[in-house]
Task: inverse folding
């Protein structure tokens, strides 16, 4: 492993481990949207396969860890849920999607199959970047950046820069492109934090509605965590 690979792996794993704080919220019966964790699980599985295709041990290692952590979080959703059948259906649908995509690239005779699969991996990374977009609108509208954590935004920025450099070293456009977008998006968050500050940092968590699900400001901050891959 190069120094860049080690640093990128360490930052990404730190961000993945930080997601485990959601389990405390689940234990306290908070309503936490499951979608981002389903996408995290699917993304880790797809990037794990991408690493296997490219024979890239760094990508394999990071996303192997990511798959385990994401699955553990989803298992916690199931364990603490009052409607376990809904969680089972959502997790099953996500797993089936992953199996179908991996099977496609394994068995397809289309010479463009690997490139198409790589594009899907790239798009999965962009899904994480889109998740906090609605909150950016709220920050500008309310002139209050208290829902954005400076430490998380800085860590995510570093994460994207490291994977951007890693992708450049390996001349891999499917790593370069999403991490350019990710770095710019994290920079935007840092600019908003600098402009609007954290005026409401001392307030009690405020309920925000996201697709019909109420979430505390702590839950919103979870959406700021994005994979470097």
Result:
């Amino acid at each position: 492993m190069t120094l860049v690979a080690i640093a990128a792996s360490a930052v990404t794993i730190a961000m993945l481990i930080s997601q485990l704080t959601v389990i405390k919220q689940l234990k306290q019966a908070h309503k936490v949207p499951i979608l981002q964790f389903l996408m995290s699980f699917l993304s880790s599985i797809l990037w794990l396969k991408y690493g296997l295709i490219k024979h890239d041990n760094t990508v394999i290692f990071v996303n192997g860890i990511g798959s385990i952590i994401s699955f553990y979080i989803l298992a916690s959703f199931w364990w603490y849920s009052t409607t376990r059948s809904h969680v089972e259906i959502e997790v099953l649908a996500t797993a089936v999607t992953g199996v179908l995509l991996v099977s496609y690239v394994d068995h397809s005779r289309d010479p463009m199959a690997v490139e198409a699969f790589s594009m899907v991996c790239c798009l999965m990374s962009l899904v994480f970047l889109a998740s906090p977009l609605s909150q950016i609108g709220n920050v500008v509208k309310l002139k209050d950046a208290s829902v954005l954590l400076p430490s998380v935004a800085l860590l995510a920025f570093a994460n994207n820069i490291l994977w951007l450099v890693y992708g450049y070293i390996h001349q891999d456009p499917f790593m370069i492109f999403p991490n350019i977008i990710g770095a710019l998006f994290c920079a935007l968050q840092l600019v908003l934090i600098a402009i609007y500050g954290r005026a409401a940092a001392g307030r009690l968590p405020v309920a925000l509605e996201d697709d019909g699900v109420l979430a505390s400001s702590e839950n919103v901050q979870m959406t700021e965590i994005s994979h470097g891959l």
About this structure: Strands lie at 208-210, 213-215. The first helix runs from residue 3 to 18.
